[in-house]
Amino acid sequence: MKRYLVFEDGTYFEGKAFGSNIETIGELVFTTGMSGYQEAITDQSYNGQIINFCTPMIGNYGIAKKFNESPKSFIKGVLAREIADTVGNYQSEMTIDQFLKEENIPGIYDIDTRAITLKIRKAGTLKAAIVDDLNSGLMDQIENWKLDKAQLNQSIIKKPQTFAGSGKHVVMLDYGYKQSIVDELQKRDVKVTVVPGNTSVTEIENLLPDGILLSNGPGDPLDHTDILPNIVELEKKYPVFGICMGHQLLCLANGAKTFKMKFGHRGFNHPVKNLETGKIYFTSQNHGYAVDPESIAQTELKVTQVELNDQTVEGVEHTRYDAFSVQFHPDAMPGPHDADFIFDKFLERLNK
């Protein structure tokens, strides 16, 4: 069956339908990863977005739910040049088509993903609709669609959840966390309590944490300005570590500014230079906003890492408090493990 991707500027691409049969609107983004489609689809940082996969084929190793980054996906759609109907992975439980049907996510394959990526790189991130009919009533709604607070809240847990560990205790403020972050902490025997991102300082203190982690998550960091005073209070009392959205929130709390990028960083081939050691490592990234480097100069933060392709701020450290953050994903799921030492750095601070 034919299915169409229609951009907010009126242009469209034709392909074939797979996944759910619903029509939808979202923000269209591309990811450059050559694998890891399951982790991307279940990553809450993609909430509200239609993912255009640059790799020529997805689905070839199927779906094994134990690798999900979250229990439920809130992406708006999937675009692929080709999907695999046969899988050869012994762990696979279902095909990508079956998985998207189960998650109620529409997809289009046999579509020109290369041309779509080039269009986004030139025009910037665009809103788009996935429809089965070019006369769909959904077309009139594309321009006014936005990721609202209600959709963002879908990605945040409703009540605290604890993951066992015999060592230090970290409280993670959740804005749409990835399970792989918890997994990396548990590998280091850390007990993790995940709480909603707007949990009060008093409630956090009552949990007796040794440190605080600010998680990744979808949307504009300015949608979470209500919790910035909490971050200021927490960094005075505990070691604080921010990842992706958590990095942006730590910077905002300390007086820096953020901006929306033209088309963001999504994939795991992003080279980052550590300004303290001179080392360069490839990183997994998924974000559409970044910290304004000029605004850092007016704060007590210092830049510790930069992205070599566009010089965006990839890491900061507080010069007075025990707080630091990175824009990329050191948990590396999917992606290279070059930067997983950053979890060891956080653990060292917990052990001081």
Number of strands: 19
Instruction: Describe the strand arrangement of the main beta sheet, using strand numbers.
Output: 10-12-11-13-14-19-18-17-15-16
Calculate Rg over CA atoms.
20 Å
Q: What pattern of helices and strands is seen along the backbone?
A: EEEHEEEEHEHEHEEHEHEHEHEEHEEEH
Low-confidence parts lasting 5 or more residues at pLDDT below 50?
none
Residues in helices, as a percent range: 10-25%
Q: Looking at the structure, what is the overall shape?
A: globular
Percentage of residues in DSSP E strands: 25-35%
Largest sheet: number of strands, sense, barrel closure: 10 strands, mixed
Q: Give the mean pLDDT.
A: 96
General description of the model:
The protein has 352 residues and is of the alpha/beta class. 22% of the residues lie in helices and 32% in strands. The chain has a ten-stranded mixed beta sheet with strand order 10-12-11-13-14-19-18-17-15-16, with helices on both faces. The protein has a seven-stranded mixed beta barrel with strand order 1-2-8-6-4-3-9. Strand 18 and strand 19 form a beta hairpin. The chain is globular, with a radius of gyration of 20 Å. The N and C termini lie far apart (60 Å).
